[in-house]
Structures
1.
Amino acid sequence: MFYRKNIIAVTGMFLCVFLIVHLSANAILLFPETTARTLYNSYSTTLRESIVIKIVAYLLYLSIIFHVVYAAIVTYKNRRSKKDKYIMNHKHETSSWASQNMGLLGVLILIFIVVHLVNFWARVKLGIGEKVGLDAYGNIDVYEVTYSLFHNIYYVLFYSVLMIPLGFHLHHGLQSAFKTLGFYHKKGLAVLAKISLIYAIIMSIGFAIIPVIVYFK
Ligand code: HEM
């Protein structure tokens, strides 16, 4: 039982680091059109061609799978038994709405990730769906894929609104991961709780405003 929550915490932390890199990369979309297209496409090409990034990407996919599977098992077991150690270890924390609904928030994020991967990853990496053209430098035009997707108001709403559950999930998840991994110092935890809040706000607002700004570009 003990190892499950550690796997959730470690994979969750890794996914949090990925989100920082992913948001920074997607912030390129906020630059003026020509700069954004060149930078975004060359960043995307580097991602596809680097062997190191490929290994990290496989770690990322594994992390998502392990995080989801173990979180589902823990949520299921917690529902069946209040004596579950995961709850026991966290019995002193104030039980926020997010902490009680991590499963639901997780499902919403999973729906987001599946749609998102179909929108981008499947098209760009697997060549599934509408064919992706090349830019002036001969790179796959991922910028165009993003630009046209975010000119559809339904996708803009989908991408922006689902950043609300992402924010709640990150806020509770990050502080919980710190506790699970052994941070018990009261003052330290209070600081980590603030860091988790700031992190969650930056991630959710950051990801939510990009589609909106691209829409009005
Ligand atoms: C403004 C919002 C976002 C944009 C524009 C965006 C864009 C992209 C693009 C273009 C790719 C494909 C990269 C490539 O192979 O060239 C991608 C991959 C991915 N995105 Fe996002 N993303 C956004 C938000 C998110 C969020 C919020 C999450 C997670 C909750 C996420 C998770 C992923 C994952 C897991 C991959 C696959 C990683 C890989 O194989 O390299 N994305 N995204």
Note: The first helix runs from residue 2 to 26.
2.
Amino acid sequence: MTALRTENISHAYLISGEQGSGKNMFADAFSAALLCTENGEEPCGRCKSCIQAQTGNHPDIIRVTHEKSVISVDDIREQLNSNVVVKPYSSEYKVFIVDEAELMNEAAQNALLKTLEEPPEYVVILLLSESEDVLLPTIRSRCVRLNTRPLPTADVVEYLTANYGVPDYRATTAAAFSGGNLGAAIAFITTDGASEERTKVWDFLRNIDDLSIPQIADAMRIEASEREEVLDLFSLWLRDVLVFKSTGKAKKLILQNEVHSIEKAAKVRSFEALDRAVRAVDEARRRLKSNVNADISLEMLALKLRDR
Ligand SMILES: [Zn+2]
């Protein structure tokens, strides 16, 4: 919220970042803070304006919507250009949020440019985009650019415990799993279907040293859409096995539910074997991307995870 701290509000911001990196969360927090009547750096969360913002009912926060896979010139004209001239209803500012701004075609961007060239003083436009490059240079040069980099793990944990009421250890797992990508962390704790897949992975890892080869082959028949997540879980598990092997401390583990199996796995594996396993996960990741036989790649990887 540096822009707010310096009281240097620009008329246009270009917020870029990959999907799930928190662009919308940032835009929501930014507009709420801008319109909060308590005038703090962060939205107070209690005033009428904040409550309207939280419930998506703020008359001075306008989200530009679009129907097809393109934001057309009519979308921009009807929802933005013709609306900016109307003074804010109840606030000092009027915020327009254009999500997926990269979907604006050239005509739409040129229409937006008209407003960006001479915006009314109360107007703040937030363009959210996965990539800046597809926007016209004339648009980009009029925007303050903000990049939503992945958040530090501690912030993700704090956000998840505060907003989703999950226990600390689950929030930590989700944060570590998601590599700081808030959207992925939220998906981790809220997606039921994926969590069934995860249960299977934990069952597999708990018993990995006792399974027969056919059982392993069977366990590694994983739906294409779930494979990458399974590799992430393997990485997380190996990370913990390594941490336990080096420190002997269960407290340092991310996977607090799996302490026993991690301890067991750490005892029988050498550092060299674990190192090979970590590299095998990376290798499997590469192989899956290049369309080789996925079941066999995963089976080979699973066998590597058992190396001692
Ligand atoms: Zn407030």
Note: Residues 2-147 form a domain with the Rossmann fold fold (CATH 3.40.50.300).
3.
Amino acid sequence: MHSGRPTACTDPELADQETTPGIGVHCVLSDVFHPEALCRAAEIEHARRQLMIDRDAFVELMSGVCAPVTVITATGADRRPHGSTVSSFASLSLDPPLVSFALDRASGLLNHLQPGDRVGVNILGAHQRALASAFARRSQEGSKFDGVAWTRRAGLPHLPESAGWTAGLVQRHVDGGDHILLVVCVEEAETTPVPPLTYARRVFGTHTPLAVAS
Ligand SMILES: Cc1cc2nc3c(=O)[nH]c(=O)nc-3n(C[C@H](O)[C@H](O)[C@H](O)COP(=O)(O)O)c2cc1C
């Protein structure tokens, strides 16, 4: 039990919750402004913070998760191309065919990818590291497409010679803390023999098959 606990919170129900903080706690709207409910909310928040993983440990863990490198693209209302480097791209569902990726709430690209908008995904190849760095710049620094070889495909900015390409419709936004998870319904997909670009432990790499044991 932590010190400095408000006396108003020492009811048996909350004493139980101390061993299982935040679990099984329900409140209705009329409870919210009640002093006891406010106290309970503060208790739960305190317990939640104590349970939270150390930020550096979390960042270190996730840096070791090998990720694909993509450039997600959109066409703005002004017909200009937009794109950002994204490694959170993942397969979500086979039936229906869905993929997902997460964008920082501050991402400029997010403005062009609202539900109902079309989106392109260029899965970068191992030789496209420079593109990954170029599209990781902020949008305000001018068009990221200046000096880049690109075409329009299905009305979306496409980077040729990538390892793969898919395009689809943004189906919905899902709250993901400081990011927004975008769920995309896939409309077209193409793979090429180009080896993929990967990102792990803060460096770019590629996938190498292990030798088959004899
Ligand atoms: C390898 C790599 C992977 C990245 N993955 C993501 C990601 O999954 N989501 C995200 O929001 N930003 C990601 N970023 C950062 C964005 O590319 C960067 O913040 C960019 O400036 C955003 O541009 P925008 O504001 O035009 O959208 C990644 C950057 C790199 C270099």
Note: Helices lie at 12-17, 35-51, 55-63, 129-134.
4.
Amino acid sequence: MPDAQSTEQHKSQLLAQRAELLERMAFERGGVLGRAQVAAERYEASSSDDAQLRSEREDGFAMNEHETAELQDIDRALALVASGHYGECLDCEEFIPEQRLQATPTALRCIACQTALETAQSRA
Ligand SMILES: [Zn+2]
């Protein structure tokens, strides 16, 4: 079982990751602070090539989807910290190796289960 101290470390790592991600998302989506800036950029862009503008918008959208997924992973890991199940594999309930959690604090499964899941997903 992972000791309380390392769980605390992962928790603060997750919280830092979450704060950084939210800041980035707020900036990209033109949150309260960024809205005026985004409006100014749009005004400038309206004089440029339409195709270029469209592709930039699509890139931004793809990135936001990725970030939403990342945020869900972080929140899920934090919920597990709160319930005392952080570090347990969701599928087989074995403990995820500390080394893996350090590299990927949002890991919800052990490597064997994660690999099995990804193989199943790539077949679907
Ligand atoms: Zn597992």
Note: The first helix runs from residue 4 to 28.
